[in-house]
């Protein structure tokens, strides 16, 4: 175990005991440590480049963290792939998840959600020269890619029975497969797809079909039953929307991809159960 992990373990113990982080040895600045799960490979939403973390989800997480009393330097960013999000929360490896995480009834059996803070919709990403795919109805005989543990994979299996679906661990793996002709389309949220389509390295090669067929309500994942934390986060989301920070974050992170939020945005958070 290296020093960092010992520090993290000490922080986890002091949190578990309900002690403040003051006097712990993990940095010595007396801050409130927060472990936040994000995506590391979704440009515009959650992206890690070296030690830089950018994206709309990252900005939402930073805003909430500040309202919860955590300085930016006291946030520990942890990769939260789609299929691992519930487990990361259930085992306390993260305190909250802001990672294009749709609120669903089946996930609510294991974890809690604040929000929603954004409404997205499932869509399709195809090669720029492909006019044969216009929506879920035109996927017969096509090779489709999505991610294990996502609502995207589940929905497409339900809506297009018998679809030829390849499931990877991350969406960036699907993008590589699409560009190299190993699959014909990638399906997930329009936000995520817009981010990939606008990346310099794929300029002119990819396009979003632009006909969303689900409603994805992005929530902030927290431990199940933590109503107090849920209320605090909902309050932070309302403030982020009312003081203009939400608009700024959308523009700064998704504007370059030409993405504008669809109907229902910005949303009003659900009541905390
Ligand atoms: N929002 C969908 C979900 O939570 C798809 C995006 C993702 O996998 O992060 O499953």
In short:
Helix content is 32%, strand content 23%.
The profile of the biggest β sheet is: 5 strands, mixed
CATH topology of the largest domain: D-Maltodextrin-Binding Protein, domain 2
Percentage of β-strand residues = 15-25%
Bound molecules: glutamic acid
In CATH terms, the superfamily of the largest domain is Periplasmic binding protein-like II
- Give a count of the beta strands, DSSP E runs of length 2 or more: 13
Shape: globular
Overall CATH architecture of the largest domain = 3-Layer(aba) Sandwich
Order of helices and strands: HEEEEHEHEHEEEHEHEHEEHH
| Total count of domains | 2
Multimer state: single chain
The helix content, as a percent range, equals 25-40%
End-to-end C-alpha gap: 39 Å
Q: Can you count the helices?
A: 9
Q: How confident overall, as mean pLDDT?
A: 91
User: Which structural category fits the helices and strands?
Assistant: alpha/beta
CATH C-level of the largest domain: Alpha Beta
Strand order of the largest sheet: 10-9-11-8-12
Outline the low-pLDDT stretches: 9-28
Organism: Dietzia cinnamea
Keywords: Signal, Transport
Protein name: Amino acid ABC transporter substrate-binding protein (PAAT family)
Domain Solute-binding protein family 3/N-terminal: 33-257
Structure explained in plain terms:
With 273 residues, this protein is α/β, with parallel strands linked by helices. It has 2 domains: 33-118 and 215-255, Periplasmic binding protein-like II (D-Maltodextrin-Binding Protein, domain 2, 3-Layer(aba) Sandwich), CATH 3.40.190.10; 120-212, 3-Layer(aba) Sandwich (D-Maltodextrin-Binding Protein, domain 2). It has 9 helices and 13 strands. The chain has helices at residues 3-16, 56-67, 85-90, 105-108, 151-159, 171-179, 190-197, 227-242, 245-254, and strands spanning 34-38, 41-42, 46-49, 52-54, 75-79, 96-97, 111-120, 122-127, 143-147, 164-168, 185-189, 206-208, 216-223. The chain has a 5-stranded mixed beta sheet with strand order 10-9-11-8-12, with helices on both faces. Strand 3 and strand 4 form a beta hairpin. It starts with a helix and ends in a 19-residue tail after the last helix. Bound molecules: glutamic acid (GLU). Glutamic acid binds at residues 82, 99-102, 147, 150-152, 188-189, 216.
